[in-house]
Design goal:
The chain has about 425 residues and is an alpha/beta fold. Helices cover about 40% and strands about 20% of the residues. The protein has 16 helices and 13 strands. The protein has helices at about 5-15, 30-45, 70-80, 100-105, 120-130, 145-155, 160-170, 175, 180-205, 210-220, 230-240, 245-260, 290-295, 300-315, 365-375, 405-410; strands spanning about 20-25, 55-60, 85-90, 115-120, 135-140, 265-270, 275-285, 320-330, 335-350, 355-360, 385-390, 395, 405.
């Protein structure tokens, strides 16, 4: 079965012939190679581009090991460009080539070369694309399947609640989605986390004491939706694990996980003060299946998983997402003034657009309703305010002008907000 990833395909097509190096970034196994080598290449062929003018090199393939030498790769590509018609150069996992920046820069001024590459390391983007490509690198971030794409792949299942439950358990990595049974999915996800993602991080960063890294991964996986920082994690290691791993090492490990696109850090933002608060932050997993596999599928709290799912969907839609804080002055039981901090789960920004969002799996008590709505009521600007709930209740606006969305309407309709 082929899931047409039309959103990403259209992004690629819109950037054709723009004189820049198109860089597809994202975690390993999220579908970058298939998008580039299959969906994009087939589109070009259907448009009439001759197969000889689509140059594909999978640099992760052992058979192409000699092409990881930059001069050999240049020589190979040049040998295939035999006329003045447009050539589409598709390179997979290009960071495996030494001095790949020089290779790609060599084609910036070749008029009949349109270059597309994939990379799985965030440093590849931040350091090399922006700096080394002289401002001519154009990123396209690829994510695992969205819930909408997942539903498109499950033609035989019509129960939305069942689909959502399974998506929050096993995630959206394309190969996992297309597997036929749960045991196969679970084994694959466990092995992928250990033997691909963690192995990559250890080898790339020359980590010797890998027990600390693995324990840190477990701590993050257990605390999605919770505020944390290197000091807090350091204290956890010290008090519970009897381990004195330094805060600097913890910070480095957190950075390595983000570099591999396994997790993302969401910063805290003071809404009234209009400034960022240095620490603590929240960390979310790019794929929920991998997060659950790390905990052997034992911790599946729907409240936290839904929050992570909403974060991922917002990022997929192009929003920058922060954790909001609203500070209010109130009085305690003794009548004394005190400052209180109310949390807004997500402050979402895209261009001039801003949206405030609360994730609330269920509002079973009046106290819980007040907790979720109070922080939004305290924000006095005119940007949209939303509460996303689990379940199938209808979408509506309350008397405060707050939009109450059910999770399915949010995930299935890009334009509902």
């Amino acid at each position: 079965m082929i899931v047409e990833r039309n959103t990403y395909l259209q992004k690629l097509l819109s950037k054709r012939h723009n004189g820049m190096i198109k860089v597809l970034t994202g975690m390993r196994r999220c579908g970058k190679s298939f998008l580039l080598f299959n969906l994009f290449a087939e589109y070009l062929k259907e448009e009439g581009i001759d197969d000889s003018h689509i140059i594909k090199v999978n640099l992760e393939d052992r058979r192409n090991k000699n092409l990881r030498n930059p001069d050999k790769l240049l020589e190979h590509i040049d040998s295939l460009m035999t006329d003045n018609n447009m050539y589409y150069i598709l390179l997979d996992e290009v960071q495996m080539v030494n001095e790949f920046e020089d290779v790609l820069n060599s084609y910036l001024h070749v008029q009949n070369a349109d270059v597309y590459v994939t990379g799985s390391n965030a440093k590849f983007l931040s350091k090399d694309v922006i700096t080394e490509f002289r401002g001519r690198g154009d990123e396209i971030r690829i994510h695992p399947f969205s819930f909408k794409e997942y539903c498109d792949s499950q033609h035989n299942v019509k129960d939305r609640e069942q689909l959502l439950e399974r998506f929050m358990l096993y995630g959206g990595l394309p190969q996992v989605v297309l597997m036929k049974n749960d045991e196969e999915r679970e084994d694959y996800l466990r092995n992928l986390f250990t033997h691909t993602y963690l192995k990559d991080i250890k080898e790339r960063n020359s980590i010797q004491n890998d027990d600390d890294l693995e324990e840190l991964v477990n701590i993050l996986a257990s605390s999605i939706g919770g505020l944390t920082n290197p000091l807090k994690i350091h204290n956890t290691f010290k008090s519970i694990k009897q381990n004195c791993i330094s805060r600097d090492t913890i910070k480095s490990y957190l950075d390595y996980m983000q570099d591999a696109f396994l997790t993302e850090r969401s910063l805290r933002y003071d809404i009234k003060g209009r400034k960022y608060i240095d620490t603590p932050s929240k960390y979310y997993f790019e794929d929920l299946g991998l997060r659950n596999a790390r905990l052997n599928f034992r911790q599946s709290e729907k409240t936290h998983l839904m929050e992570n799912l909403i974060y991922n969907e917002l990022r997929l839609r192009g929003f920058a997402v922060d954790v909001g804080q609203v500070t209010i002055n109130t009085k305690n039981a003794d009548g004394k003034s005190e400052r209180k901090h109310l949390e807004v789960d997500f402050v979402c920004n895209k261009g001039y657009e801003r949206i405030y969002i609360q994730s609330a799996f269920a509002l079973l008590t009046e106290e819980k309703r007040e907790q979720e709505f109070n922080s939004l009521r305290r924000i006095k600007d005119n940007f949209q305010k939303i509460v996303i709930m689990g379940g199938l209740q209808p979408t509506y606006k309350n008397n405060d002008g707050i939009l109450i969305l059910n999770i399915y309407d949010f995930l299935m309709n890009d334009n509902i907000m």
